[in-house]
Design goal:
Elements lengths: L1 H20 L1 H39 L3 H4 L14 H9 L2 H32 L5 H10 L9 H9 L6 H6 L10 H8 L6 H13 L3 H9 L4 H12 L1 H17 L2 H6 L6 H6 L1 H10 L3 H8 L2 H37 L4
Helix pairs in contact: 2-18, 4-16, 4-18, 5-9, 5-10, 5-13, 6-10, 10-13, 11-12, 13-18, 16-17, 16-18
């Protein structure tokens, strides 16, 4: 038995020096390790770009004002404190702002998902003349900058009217500025943030569902809408989860439309734009000179801004911890990665 094993090993030992001097062998080895090095550099670089700002904000948020002006303190504070979080919590009226943001993002998420799932299913199943051009126009909305439609949207919701009905009844159009109605109407009518992307996701997902499933439902006597609700929609849960999470997070972080429609900082993203001045006003008690003293201090304003940003993204981090597994599975099954 030992003789047979030794006989089998002998050719391998004889071929090993030949592999070492082979140019192809070393070329393959070099290519393999080069790819490993490139992947390591890319992953490390991307992780650094993402994690470094968060670590910097954490370091600044837990510093006291003494550590902030101490040149020897760089990353680790000498004394950890939660005073900054308490101050931001009180000055920003955090519970009310958090509740408003959750309510607005939740309503927009539901309406956007309902609108886009219907549009995506229609584009994937209904064939008519010009449907391809219409779908291209929907996808093209992803590329249109929001600044190009800022003025028409603002004027539309500033003097909102439907065929002159409101002007006839009330004597003047409705002013929807500084309300949540612009967000609700935009989401319900498929004009919300990144709507073109959501329609594209649903359309590609529905194209992967076999038509035989729907035809079997038609044979059993189900009508068009019953087939959609009872057969197609349950199979579209992965795409729906993906769109709902994207819609919720993008509405939560949106600052362009919230600052355009809302005159007062009622939601988290608009509150972030004026958090420094709000905190300075809260500390000064409304005194102009005292407020300017806080505002003109760049270190203090930076500390307050970093703390407020952390408190703004904290609910999203908690949400992602709960839905991480479902989100990853939904992205993979919806084909968004590919």
């Amino acid at each position: 038995m030992k003789t047979e094993i030794a006989a089998r090993r002998q050719p391998i030992r004889e071929r090993w020096p030949l592999r070492q001097v082979s140019t192809a062998y070393w070329f393959e080895a070099l290519k393999k390790w080069s790819w490993v090095l490139i992947r390591f550099v890319l992953i490390f670089g991307i992780s650094f770009v993402i994690i470094y700002p968060i670590l910097l904000k954490l370091s600044i948020a837990f510093k006291s004002r003494e550590d902030l002006y101490d040149s020897t303190v760089i990353w680790v504070p000498q004394s950890l404190t939660l005073e900054n979080f308490k101050l931001v919590y009180q000055a920003m009226n955090y519970p009310a702002v958090l509740l408003n943001t959750l309510l607005l993002s939740g309503i927009v998420m539901i309406l956007t998902t309902m609108t886009c799932v219907l549009a995506g299913y229609g584009f994937s199943r209904i064939r008519m003349r010009g449907s391809g051009l219409l779908f291209a126009a929907v996808v093209f909305t992803i590329l249109v900058p929001s600044h190009t439609i800022m003025v028409p949207l603002y004027l539309n919701f500033k003097s909102f009217d439907i065929l002159g009905i409101f002007a006839l009844v009330r004597g003047e159009p409705l002013n929807l500025i500084n309300t949540y109605w612009p967000f609700v109407l935009s989401a319900a009518l498929g004009m919300g943030v990144k709507t073109g992307l959501y329609v594209y996701i649903f359309r590609q997902f529905f194209k992967g569902i076999p038509r035989e499933i729907e035809e079997a439902a038609y044979v059993d006597g189900a009508n068009y809408f019953a087939t959609f609700l009872r057969v197609v929609l349950p199979n579209a849960v992965p795409a729906m989860v993906t769109v709902m999470l994207f819609s919720f997070v993008w509405q939560w972080n949106d600052s362009f439309f919230t600052n355009m429609y809302l005159n007062e900082p009622k939601v988290m993203s608009s509150m972030m734009a004026s958090s420094g001045y709000s905190i300075a006003t809260f500390l000064s008690g409304g005194g102009q000179a005292e407020m300017l003293r806080y505002v003109q201090d760049p270190f203090f304003m930076s500390m307050m801004m970093n703390t407020s940003v952390l408190m703004a993204i904290l609910p999203l981090i908690v949400l992602y911890l709960f839905v991480q597994r479902h989100f990853v599975e939904s992205v993979e099954r919806s084909g968004l990665v590919g």
